[in-house]
Write a structure and sequence with these properties.
about 375 residues; mainly alpha; 3'-phosphoadenosine 5'-phosphosulfate transmembrane transporter activity; membrane; SCL35B1-4/HUT1; transmembrane helix; Adenosine 3'-phospho 5'-phosphosulfate transporter 2
Length: about 375
C-alpha cells in the first residue's frame, strides 16, 4: 500500500510537473527582431493621417476626400499650366527650360521645408536611397517636360503627357504586382486614343512638330509612368508625409540639375537672360512654382489615398481642361475633331471611375455585363428556335 501511495504520489508529481510545463509554455511569447534592411519606420503604423496644406483629410469620408483632392488639383494646376505657357511665351526664353526647372525645384524645396516645420513629426521616414531614385525620376519628368516646350506647342506637349496612363498601368504591374480589370484597360485605351486623335488634329490645323521635342516628351513620359508607382509604394510602406516627400525629392533634384547645368555651361546664359527680365521670369516662376507645389500636394494625397492610377486619371482630366483654357487664353485655330477626341477622353475617365466604384456600391463589372448579355442573347435565340 505504501508502494502504491508512493507510485501514485510520483505520478501526481509527474502530472503536476507536466501540467506546470504545459501551462507555463502557454505564457511564452515569440518575438522576432527584424534585420536592418527590414526595420520598420520609427512611427506608429496604425496612424495613417493624410495632411495637405495643414488640413487633415483623414477626418473626412472617402467621397469628401476625393472631392477636396480633385478640386485642389484642378484649381492649382489650371493656374500652373497658364503660367507655364505664359513664361515660354517670353521672347528668347525657350532654350532655358532646364533653368526654369532648377528655379522651380528651388522654390519647391523652400515650400516643403516651411510646411515640414509646421507639422509635429519632422522625422524623415522614407530611406535616402529611395529619395535619390524619386528625385532622379522627378528631374526627368519635369525637366524634360519643360525643355520640350522649346520645341513643341503647349497643347501638343500636354497631349503627349496625357498618354502616360498606359505606362502607369504597366509600371503598376511590374513594380507593385498590380492586376487591372477590363474597365481600367478600356479607360486607358479610350483616354490615350482620344488624346492621340487630339494631337493629329492639332498637327493638321497648326503644325508645330519637332522630332527633338517628341523624344524629350517621350522620355519624360517614361519617367512619369514610373514615378507615381514608386511614390505610392514608398509612401504606403513607410507612411511618409506629403511635405517630406516634396522636400527631399525636390531638394535632391535641385542638386542634380545644378550639377548638370554647371557641367554643361548652361547656367550662366540663363542667369544673364533672366536678370534682364526678372518679372517675366522669376516673378512668374514664383507663382508658377507656388501653384505647382499646392497642386503636387493634392496629387500626392490622391496617390496615398486612392492609388497612382486614379491620380493619373484625375491629372489627365485636368490636362484636358488645361488644353481648353489654352485655346481660350492663347489664340489658336479650332476644329471639331478636338470635341470628339475630348469626348473619348471623358469616356475613359468615366470607365475608370466606374471601375473604382464597382465594389463600393455593388455595380456589376464590365465582364459580368458582357457575360449576362451573351447569356440573354443565347436564351432569346433558344426561345425563338423552340
Amino acid at each position: 500500500e505504501e508502494q502504491k501511495e508512493d507510485n501514485s504520489s510520483t505520478e501526481c508529481s509527474e502530472l503536476g510537473i507536466m501540467d506546470l510545463k504545459f501551462t507555463s509554455s502557454r505564457k511564452y511569447i515569440s518575438i522576432s527582431v527584424p534585420s536592418k534592411s527590414q526595420t520598420m519606420s520609427p512611427h506608429i503604423k496604425s496612424v495613417d493621417d493624410v495632411v495637405v496644406l495643414g488640413m487633415n483629410l483623414s477626418k473626412f469620408n472617402k467621397p469628401t476626400q476625393f472631392f477636396i483632392c480633385v478640386s485642389g488639383v484642378f484649381m492649382f494646376y489650371l493656374i500652373y499650366g497658364y503660367l507655364q505657357e505664359l513664361i515660354f511665351s517670353v521672347e528668347g526664353f525657350k532654350p532655358f527650360g532646364w533653368y526654369l526647372t532648377l528655379v522651380q525645384f528651388g522654390f519647391y524645396s523652400i515650400f516643403g521645408l516651411i510646411e515640414l516645420q509646421l507639422i509635429q513629426d519632422k522625422r524623415r521616414r522614407i530611406p535616402g536611397k529611395t529619395y535619390m531614385i524619386i528625385a532622379f525620376l522627378t528631374v526627368g519628368t519635369m525637366g524634360l517636360s519643360n525643355t520640350s516646350l522649346g520645341y513643341l506647342n503647349y497643347p501638343t506637349q500636354v497631349i503627349f503627357k496625357c498618354c502616360k496612363l498606359i505606362p502607369v498601368m504597366i509600371g503598376g504591374v511590374f513594380i507593385q504586382g498590380k492586376r487591372y480589370n477590363i474597365a481600367d484597360v478600356s479607360a486607358a485605351l479610350c483616354m490615350s486614343l482620344g488624346l492621340i486623335w487630339f494631337t493629329l488634329a492639332d498637327s493638321t490645323v497648326a503644325p508645330n512638330f519637332n522630332l527633338t521635342g517628341v523624344v524629350l516628351i517621350s522620355l519624360a513620359l517614361c519617367a512619369d509612368a514610373v514615378i507615381g508607382n514608386v511614390q505610392e509604394k514608398a509612401m504606403k510602406l513607410h507612411n511618409g508625409s506629403n511635405s517630406e516627400m516634396v522636400l527631399y525629392s525636390y531638394s535632391i533634384g535641385f542638386v542634380y540639375i545644378l550639377f548638370g547645368l554647371t557641367c554643361s555651361s548652361g547656367l550662366s546664359p540663363a542667369v544673364t537672360f533672366c536678370s534682364k527680365h526678372p518679372l517675366q521670369t522669376y516673378g512668374y516662376a514664383f507663382l508658377f512654382s507656388l501653384t505647382g507645389y499646392f497642386g503636387i500636394s493634392f496629387v500626392l494625397a490622391l496617390i496615398k489615398i486612392f492609388g497612382a492610377l486614379l491620380a493619373v486619371t484625375v491629372t489627365t482630366g485636368r490636362k484636358a481642361m488645361t488644353i481648353v483654357l489654352s485655346f481660350l487664353f492663347f489664340a489658336k485655330p479650332f476644329t471639331f475633331q478636338y470635341v470628339w477626341s475630348g469626348l473619348l477622353v471623358v469616356l475613359g475617365i468615366f470607365l475608370n471611375v466606374y471601375s473604382k466604384n464597382m465594389d463600393k456600391i455593388g455595380l456589376p463589372s464590365l465582364h459580368g455585363l458582357w457575360k449576362k448579355s451573351v447569356e440573354e442573347r443565347k436564351t432569346r435565340t433558344l426561345s425563338q428556335t423552340v
